[in-house]
Structures are given as C-alpha cells and as structure tokens.
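Exercise 3.2. Students should predict the tertiary structure of the chain below and write it as structure tokens, then compare their answer with the key that follows.

Predict this chain's 3D structure.
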Amino acid sequence: MVGFSTIFMRDIRVAFRRFSELANPLIFVIVLALFPLAVSPDPARLRQIGVGILWISSLLSALLALEGLFRGDADDGTLEQLILSPVPVGVTVLAKVAAHWLVTILPLVAMVPLLALSFHLPPAALPTLTGALLLATPTLSVLVALGAALTVGLKRGGAIVGLLILPLTGPLLIFGARATDLSVAGEATAGPLYLLAAFAALAVSLGPVAIGAALKVGLE
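Answer key:
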C-alpha cells in the first residue's frame, strides 16, 4: 500500500503541473455545449440524441490524455526505474491508472448531470447515467492504459492506439447507453449496470498484469 500511495500521489502532483490533462474535461464541456446549438432546439429531438452524444463524447474525452499516460515517464527514464523498483509492476500500473482516472475522468463524470439537462433528459435518469459512467470508466481507463503501454516505444502512437482502442469500447457504449435509455423510459436498469460492473471488476483485476507485461516489452 505504501508503494501504491507514493506512486499515486506522485502522478497526481505531476498531472496538476500539466494543464493540458486538466483541460480535457473542459474540452468535453465545450463540445457538448455546441451540439444543442447545431441541431433542432426541439426537446424531444435533443432527448432522443442526447444519450448517444453524452456517451460518445465521454469515451473520446478519455482518449485525449492517452498519449501522456506513460510517455513523460518513459522519456525521462522514470518508468524504467518504477518497473525495476521493489514495488510489483501491477501495483505501479494500478496506481498510475487510478491517478489518470481521478484527474481526467472523474471531473468529466461530475459534469455529466449538468450537461445532460441541456439535452432535456429527465432528472430521474441522471443518477443512472452517472452510475453507469462510474462503472464504465474504470474499464475505459484500463483500455487506454493498455493502448498507451503497447505504443510506449513509439514517438507518436496516439492515433494508432485510438484506432486500436475505440472498437474495444463498443460494449461499454452499448450497455451504458442502454442503461440510460431504460432509465429515461422508467424501466429496470439492473441488467446493463451489472454487466458494466463485471467488466470493471475484470479490467481492474487482470488489466494491470497485461499492461505491466506490455510496458516491459515496449521498453526493451
């Protein structure tokens, strides 16, 4: 736990020195604010397209910080030192992914309820939307970290990783949007939420091992 907390707090401090990472949620807000201006102001139409727009924008926003997840530490040699340290690689990866989630994704999830109101989603559906995002985003963070680890040896691998990772986010998009749609319709949402929770548990338990292996290969 000491190693985890040390790496976690170190990445938090580094992230707050990089304004570009903290600005990702602001880009998300701007993009979503433009959609109601570009389409019909009809509440029914906005409500119909709002769920899909919210989820797609959330996934794309999380990918914006992909390039910097391991890149800075790999360039200055810090990543090699972390891998060679007594702290298990899986713990190191989990701490870095947790810091990435806290800095780049949690603010985004906190903004979603307010942004959803601009698409005239009923207030009763907002807890389900927020809960679905909280369940889906850990899996998304692990996928982003895996893509970043696979291309850590490349100078500019962001575009390649985006092409690799985006298809894998399909189940998250499908079940997350389905849970939100069911909530809007006043129906039970347990099924999709359970599936998102299962994905999150699988990703958090097995993802750090796969990411650690990818980092070792990428740094050789």
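Discussion points: The first helix runs from residue 2 to 16. The mean pLDDT is 79.
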